[in-house]
């Protein structure tokens, strides 16, 4: 049973001011991936983990007061590679969004 208000669907607006900026974003992301750049502060590097190994699960608080935990498998390599690609894209997108405000 769901006991909370529905969450709004995110906007489908293109974050880029024009097609050229979108192409530049794609080209930059391809370079970041090719150069094997791992963003900092995304819990992707060994020095950001609680132990010496990539975590095998993430505990997500659930319940009315978050008193229970749901353990979600982060089986490597599938989740690690997806998380890394997501963070690489987020890093590049953040750069482009900040640069567009200047």
Describe this structure in words.
- It contains two helices and two strands, in the order H-E-E-H.
- The protein has one domain.
- Helix 1 crosses helix 2.
- The chain is of the alpha+beta class.
- A hairpin with a 5-residue loop joins strand 1 and strand 2.
- 39% of the residues lie in helices and 12% in strands.
- It has a two-stranded antiparallel sheet with strand order 1-2.
- It is flat and about 50 Å long.
- It has helices at residues 19-34, 78-101; strands spanning 57-62, 68-73.
- The mean pLDDT is 82.
Summarize the structure.
The chain has one domain (19-101).
Q: What is the N-to-C order of secondary-structure elements (H for helix, E for strand)?
A: HEEH
How many structural domains are formed by the residues? Answer: 1
Low-pLDDT windows of residues: none
Count every helix, treating DSSP H or I runs of 4 or more residues as helices. 2
The chain-level mean pLDDT equals 82
Strand line-up of the largest beta sheet: 1-2
Name the structural class.
alpha+beta
How do the helices and strands line up, and which of them pair or pack?
Elements: H1 19-34, E1 57-62, E2 68-73, H2 78-101
Antiparallel strand pairs: 1-2
List its traits.
alpha+beta, 102 residues, 2 helices, flat
